[in-house]
Automatic annotation (TrEMBL):
<comment type="similarity">
    <text>Belongs to the beta-class carbonic anhydrase family.</text>
</comment>
<dbReference type="GO" id="GO:0004089">
    <property type="term" value="F:carbonate dehydratase activity"/>
</dbReference>
<dbReference type="GO" id="GO:0008270">
    <property type="term" value="F:zinc ion binding"/>
</dbReference>
<feature type="binding site">
    <location>
        <position position="100"/>
    </location>
    <ligand>
        <name>Zn(2+)</name>
    </ligand>
</feature>
<keyword id="KW-0479">Metal-binding</keyword>
<dbReference type="Pfam" id="PF00484">
    <property type="entry name" value="Pro_CA"/>
</dbReference>
<feature type="binding site">
    <location>
        <position position="154"/>
    </location>
    <ligand>
        <name>Zn(2+)</name>
    </ligand>
</feature>
<feature type="binding site">
    <location>
        <position position="151"/>
    </location>
    <ligand>
        <name>Zn(2+)</name>
    </ligand>
</feature>
<dbReference type="InterPro" id="IPR036874">
    <property type="entry name" value="Carbonic_anhydrase_sf"/>
</dbReference>
<feature type="binding site">
    <location>
        <position position="98"/>
    </location>
    <ligand>
        <name>Zn(2+)</name>
    </ligand>
</feature>
<protein>
    <submittedName>
        <fullName>Carbonic anhydrase</fullName>
    </submittedName>
</protein>
<dbReference type="InterPro" id="IPR006311">
    <property type="entry name" value="TAT_signal"/>
</dbReference>
<dbReference type="InterPro" id="IPR001765">
    <property type="entry name" value="Carbonic_anhydrase"/>
</dbReference>
<keyword id="KW-0862">Zinc</keyword>
Amino acid sequence: MRRGPSTVCDLHRPSLSRRGLLAAAAAGTAMGASAGIRRAEAALDGARSNAITPEAALTRLRDGNGRYVANTPANRDFAAGRAARAAAQYPIACIVGCADARVAPDFIFDQGPGDLFVVRVAGNFVTTDGLASLEYGVSVLGAPLILVLGHSDCGAVKATIDVMKTDATLPGHLPVLIDAIRPAVDLAEKARAQDPLAEAIAQNVRHSVRRLQQAGPILAEAVAAGRVKVVGGFYDIGTGRVAML
């Protein structure tokens, strides 16, 4: 079976050994070793399949969503890339998504194993450990893009609206979700939108985007330097389309 350039095998080439490259570089003279180290580092950077701009990463997500909507997913040989994935991961984007079972980022954006670094929680808001995970995805794995993905008919946002209207008390740890989403519902109420739920979902996404853009020191510095972009999107479960917010 023929494979196109978008297969997992092509996207995830085996990583080079840093120790081996640097050891080879050190075998020459001091000047030669220095030049060898620079060449070794460049080779390692070149081997990273996510060494792309934030805009290029976003384009890949847009294109993948287009394939998902059209029901024409990329033909991938998943077995071919397993050895490379066992050695390293080079995600092109970090996704902050909802835990909703209908919202699966890898399918929505038609990406293969290792392409997306996903953090999911009901209501797709940013938690402290979620922020730490995103910092890891950016600073260690080199992901150039963070996308906060809200979706239609979000139960967590809907529950927050209901609780705020009725002043109900939820059991267990569910109030934690309500408290996290409450600021977005407040903003939606002030906007007096025709569709309060859709507006609250959008405000919830924008709230998380702003928080991530300003989250110092790691993300804020990466955003300011242009190495990383933080954007928001809205996934329509009924159509499969993702609209940027």
